[in-house]
Amino acid sequence: MSDPAAGVWGELEPLLAQVVRPVQYVGGEVNAVQKPWESARVRLALMYPDTYAVGQPNQGLAILYEILNEPEWLLAERTFTVWPDLAALMRAHGVPQFTWESHRPVRDFDVLGVSFGTELGYTNLLETLDLAGIPLWQRDRVGEPLVVGGGHAMFNPEPVAPFLDAVVLGDGEEAALELARRVRDWKAAGSPGGRDELLLRLSQGGLAYIPSFYDVSYREDGQIASIRPNREGVPSSVGKHTLSDLDRWPYPKRPVVPIAETVHERYSVEIFRGCTRGCRFCQAGMITRPVRERSLVAIQQMVAGGLAATGLDEVGLLSLSSADHSQIRELATALVGQYQGSQISLSLPSTRVDAFNLTLAEQLSRSGRRTGLTFAPEGGSQRLRAVINKMVTEDDLLRTVTTAFESGWRSVKLYFMCGLPTETDADMVAIAELAGKVIEVGRQVSGRRDVGCTISIGGFVPKPHTSFQWASQASAETVDHRLQVLKEAVMADRRHGRAINLRWASGKPGVVEGLLSRGDRRLAPVIERVWRGGGVFDGWREHFSYERWESACAAELEPLGLDIGWYTTRERQREEVLPWSHLEAGLDPDWLWQDWQDALVAAEVEDCRWAGCNDCGVCPLFGLDIQLAKEAS
Questions:
Q1: Which among 55, 209, 216, 240 could disulfide-bond with 167, CB atoms 3.0 to 4.6 Å apart, if both were Cys?
Q2: How many other C-beta atoms can be found within 10 angstroms of the C-beta atom of residue 503?
Q3: Which of the 8 DSSP states describes residue 531?
Q4: Residue 509 contacts residue 544 (beta carbons within 8 Å)
């Protein structure tokens, strides 16, 4: 347990008897690292802006936690957003936001690094800063920790830019260590020039994007006129960090094993990073290019070491599309053979429809308990799948589910999106028809009536650095209407409808996500107003309030001549300066625009790993030549 004299445990412990799931705040987990405070020259608090149950399994957090604790001079501890019941008690009793290892106040650290997986975590950032006693606005900080953002959502950090000191784009392994070194050297030199000098050092060479070093001007129609550095020596644009060799960074080696329940309880290995499938809606696939695979030997060594260090009994092979690893069959065969007869199971949390095959199905079946199969056709009709460049046919899907049902699975989950560009009601009916065919195939192959298909629907949100970054987002009313069309189509299928389970959410959370995804700095007061009005955990259905966001936007945006629709349903033009135009993911904007035009005529673009370069701009930027022979596919 933490030293009460060093932390806030003595004040916190009596409060835990009054909250739900108190064990999540205790810390002391297997593989947690608690280093001597005084011996560290730089101290970082790593935060995932959600509950412990959601944030602790996050792969990025686990990787950085280990890497940053390896140097003797460096210390890293974890913190998460506390649930509202404990937050209220902490405010009432004057207990500050703390870290899980030592229960020290977050305010005592040099850096608070926040990993944003989704924009709906922005209000949780403000909640944590307030509980920590750190001024919300960057301009008001003097001696407090640097607040540094990272994660996929930070490829457009502008809505929260006024709350952040710095942003690190892309892969964090090398960048986080370099950031810590520059903080160390600045402190060792006597902290010359104060906070401003430290931020200037972090900006050098594009290590970090410093929002306060850039001025944004606006046109009379509300669009951005320019984004320019406001001081000498600051780059006009900032690019992402890209880790070239994953084998050199075999993390996590000893991930923390939670003592409280979390959303995932498995040892996860990232088998490759990046994707070249070119799905036009997928921000993760675009911003993580190029593809970098981890070798079979490295993966096997990580699995063996990770299982030994954790005692977990499930291995997750992670990537954006795990079955796309060029040696996935060999990998699955080797791992299943190694752990055959044990209680260890193997899972592919992300599996493409056209990459799943009999060999892979057989290996997963042999690996132990079946953890479920999820496939993502994304669009119900072939026309719509061509629009989004999801090159999966109905035959592909039916062949795949046939393989799954033949291999013993009795249910599959299909993921689709609603509100995609050019979508019509007919595309939603096509989802129901496709699910009916899946049920029919399952019954025929298995000879059983108890097969099932779950349809999960997510609202489409246009994201920065994708081909759809210029697209209009469907309104909440449109999304809800389309979902009703789908529900009625499923209910009308008397032969298969009862075997189809439909899961969806209201269109309103997607509107707020869209607002924050493509927003600019003028949304910072909106976020603050929402938070002050009680907005936290916006990603949780029971806490989300569209009316709160609507009211805040009316108060802050209407005086500027703007509204929610200006940010969401408005289609952008090619010449418009986008809020993230000064932040580079390596993609050629002209290529993205052409891909958007191709989408409007349903023109598909082949995967460049197998069909040749599409000139997206990433490989030359990083000095890479990853043209693979077609026969390697």
A1: 209
A2: 11
A3: H
A4: yes
Residue type for position 476: A
HSE on the CB side for 297, CA within 13 Å? 2
* Residue found by looking up tokens 């309103």 in the block: 508
The domain ranges of the chain are: 9-239
The encoded tokens of residue 274 equal: 């990046």
H or E segment to which residue 397 belongs = helix 394-406
Cα gap 146→113, rounded to integer Å? 8
Query: What's the alpha-carbon Rg for the chain, to the nearest Å?
Result: 24
Asked if residues 120 and 157 have their Cβ atoms less than 8 Å apart, the reply is: no
Provide the 10 A C-beta neighbour count for residue 80: 25
Q: Where are the alpha helices (DSSP H) in 94-172?
A: 122-132
- CATH superfamily for 9-239 is Cobalamin-binding domain (3.40.50.280)
Query: Does the reported pTM lie above 0.85?
Result: yes
Handedness of CA 483, 427, 387, 270 (dihedral sign): positive
**pLDDT at position 614:** 87
| pLDDT value for 197 | 97
Phi-psi region for residue 306, left (φ > 0), alpha (ψ -120 to 50) or beta? alpha
Q: For residue 493, which amino acid is it?
A: D
Q: Are 318 and 284 in contact (CB under 8 A)?
A: no
Rounded CA gap, 465 and 23, in Å?
Answer: 40
CB 598 within 8 A of CB 605: yes
Using CB atoms within 10 Å of the CB of residue 103, give its burial: 0 to 12 exposed, 13 to 18 middle, 19+ buried: buried
Q: In the numeric block, which tokens belong to residue 326?
A: 């060029």
> Is the CB of residue 262 less than 8 Å from the CB of residue 56?
yes
Question: Hunting for tokens 């460096």 — which residue is that?
Answer: 74
Predicted confidence (pLDDT) per residue in 436-462, tens digit: 999 999 999 999 999 999 999 999 999
Looking at the chain, how many residues does it have? 633
